[in-house]
Design goal:
GMP Synthetase, Chain A, domain 3, alpha+beta, 3 helices, 3-stranded mixed beta sheet
């Protein structure tokens, strides 16, 4: 029997599958190159608009590392890999909190 999944995970999967346009896809590919294979499954793009990219992570330690120490590095690397769609602001949020 399959274990029940939290509603937030279910909705995130639906939104990711339905709403991933070309813009998000290029950022996903950039994150695949920037983040290690162990970190990448825990990070998901949830918004991309007007030069602002919102990345959601699923653990507090990862949130602390990325938002506190690696935010600028990640934004700069994304801008190097996707120069046609630069990011002015990278927001990292902890999943399930509703905070941006």
């Amino acid at each position: 029997m399959v274990e029940p999944r939290p509603v937030g995970d279910f909705l995130r999967d639906i939104l990711r599958d339905a709403g991933h346009g070309k813009a998000r896809r290029v950022y996903d590919e950039a994150l695949d190159q920037i983040l290690s294979a162990t970190l990448r499954p825990h990070c998901q793009i949830i918004g991309c608009r007007a030069g602002r990219l919102v990345l959601e992570v699923d653990s507090a330690p990862l949130f602390a590392e990325l938002s506190g120490f690696r935010r600028d590095e990640i934004r700069e690397r994304i801008n190097q890999l996707v120069p046609q769609q630069p990011i002015a602001q990278l927001t990292i949020r902890l999943g399930g909190t509703g905070h941006v």
